[in-house]
Amino acid sequence: MACIKMIGSLVLVALIVLALSSTTEAGYRKPPFNGSIFGKRNGNSIDYEGNAKVLSTMCEIAAEACQSWFTQEQK
């Protein structure tokens, strides 16, 4: 029974990782090349801060879930 739960949880984690990997790929885009050797950018900046907030939130959720699953007895 424990083996079935372990396999189920691994499949669930794998599905979540696959779902998130496709969304991170969609957010990436190459900067435009305006014909100069330096590839000038015209003010279009990529929002790294938004992606960092999403990743931070996901890590917090995962940490809370792991703490509830694997509680440790205090000595």
Which stretches of 5+ consecutive residues score pLDDT under 50?
none
Shape: elongated
Q: Please report the number of helical segments.
A: 2
The count of strands amounts to 0
Question: What sequence of helices (H) and strands (E) makes up the elements?
Answer: HH
Structural class: mainly alpha
Mean pLDDT, nearest integer?
Answer: 73
Note the gap between the termini: 30 Å
Instruction: Report the C-alpha radius of gyration, rounded.
Output: 20 Å
Largest sheet: none
The proportion of strand residues reads: under 5%
Helix content: 55-70%
Organism: Aedes aegypti (Yellowfever mosquito)
Protein name: AAEL009858-PA
Keywords: Signal
Signal peptide: 1-26
Summarize the structure in words.
The chain is mostly helical and 75 residues long. It has a domain of 26 residues. The protein is elongated, with a radius of gyration of 20 Å. Keywords: Signal. It comes from Aedes aegypti. This is AAEL009858-PA.
